[in-house]
């Protein structure tokens, strides 16, 4: 199992390293047209906190890379989005590589009619879900809507 995980991580790293500028432009266009860019939180007025809610930001760098920043208050990180596609139902499927965690995660996001954003799924490269069908696997509670903060 570790061998398979290592291969997947290596594949993700190679994907990042060898993505052409045309591919980066396509990725940037996808997230921009879908409406992902900017900062999002469950409560934009609250200070970022690991237990009470993070501030999640998506941006396109000058070099064309699309970045995902997480602000948990005392801890922050920045990771590259390596792919993003939109399915027929309008779900944005995003893959992010987390070098410090040595893993890639895939998550699906849905823009709701009121402009809020909801996580529909979040899974590891091994297929382990933390969010499935819009609910936290551990508790069964629905994922909260996130509001655009900027």
| Nearest-integer average pLDDT | 87
Strand count: 10
Cα-atom radius of gyration = 15 Å
- Please report the distance between the alpha carbons of the first and last residues: 42 Å
Q: How many helical elements?
A: 2
For the largest beta-sheet, the strand count, sense and barrel status come to: 10 strands, antiparallel
Ranges where pLDDT stays below 50 over 5 or more residues in a row are 17-23
- The arrangement of helices and strands along the chain is HHEEEEEEEEEE
Question: Structural class per helix/strand content?
Answer: alpha+beta
How big a fraction of the residues is strand? 35-45%
What sort of overall outline do the alpha carbons produce when their principal axes are compared?
globular
User: How would you write the strand order of the largest sheet?
Assistant: 9-8-7-6-5-4-3-2-1-10
| Helix fraction by DSSP (H/I, runs of at least 4) | 10-25%
Topology diagram in text:
Elements: H1 2-18, H2 21-34, E1 38-41, E2 55-60, E3 66-71, E4 76-86, E5 92-98, E6 103-111, E7 117-124, E8 129-132, E9 135-136, E10 147-148
Antiparallel strand pairs: 1-2, 1-10, 2-3, 3-4, 4-5, 5-6, 6-7, 7-8, 8-9
Structural features, described:
- This protein is an alpha+beta fold.
- Helices cover 21% and strands 39% of the residues.
- The protein is built from 2 helices and 10 strands.
- It has helices spanning 2-18, 21-34; strands at residues 38-41, 55-60, 66-71, 76-86, 92-98, 103-111, 117-124, 129-132, 135-136, 147-148.
- The protein has a 10-stranded antiparallel beta sheet.
- The protein starts with a helix and ends with a strand.
- The relative contact order is 0.16.
């Amino acid at each position: 199992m570790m061998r398979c995980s290592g291969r997947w991580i290596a594949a993700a790293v190679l994907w990042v390293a060898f993505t052409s500028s045309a591919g980066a432009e396509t990725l940037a266009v996808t997230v921009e047209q879908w409406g992902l860019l900017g900062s999002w939180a469950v409560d934009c007025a609250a200070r970022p906190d690991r237990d009470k809610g993070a501030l999640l930001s998506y941006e396109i760098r000058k070099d064309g890379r699309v970045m995902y920043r997480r602000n948990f208050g005392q801890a922050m990180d920045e990771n590259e989005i390596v792919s993003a596609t939109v399915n027929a139902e309008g779900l944005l499927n995003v893959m992010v590589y987390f070098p410090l965690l040595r893993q890639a995660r895939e998550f699906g996001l849905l823009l709701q009619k009121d402009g809020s954003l909801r996580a529909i799924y979040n899974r590891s490269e091994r297929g382990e879900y933390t969010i499935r069908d819009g609910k936290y696997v551990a508790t069964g509670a629905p994922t909260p809507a996130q509001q655009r903060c900027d």
